[in-house]
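dumping this here so i dont lose it again. seq + smiles for zinc ion
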Amino acid sequence: MRPENPGNDRVYNYERSYNLMKRVYLLKAISLVFLSLLLLLLLFRFFSSKQLDDVSPNIPCDQKLLESSDILFVIPKFENTSISTKQDWCKSILALNKTLAIHGVYHSYNEFGEDRSEEYLLEGIEEFYNCFGFYPQIFKAPQLKITPLNKKLVKNKLTFYGYPNQLVHKTYHCNDSGEITNKITNLI
Ligand SMILES: [Zn+2]
């Protein structure tokens, strides 16, 4: 509403420009905080450990990618192939001297997006042991999908890596099948 009195008009205009300025400053402050957080996240991703998902004898994997990653997420029974029956492969992965973790059991689509039994999880853990000679400590679900019950089950035995982990670490995929390609992961 436009006031009728010219004096009131000046006050009205002053208040309007003051409010506008306040909004611009607030917007600038929010942008600055957002950009700082983004920069911090990118810096953190750059220096934090690199992870490689989908490591399996049945999935071709670039040797350079295997060598440049810090944690390898192994699928124990991809396409029903037990890694323990591929001892040469087990040795070659061990020889890389990386932290080895478990990435689902069969890695079917959204495998842990439906409730699984303890036996199911143990099947993967034992398979991992029979390949590498030690039990895994870290678990990441295929497609990162996991039900609350499965999460509880996993956390009873292993350290669980979910979305926050994926945000602060660069994660590559052996067959470059991730939602974010390896090339883009390299950049950000
Ligand atoms: Zn995967």
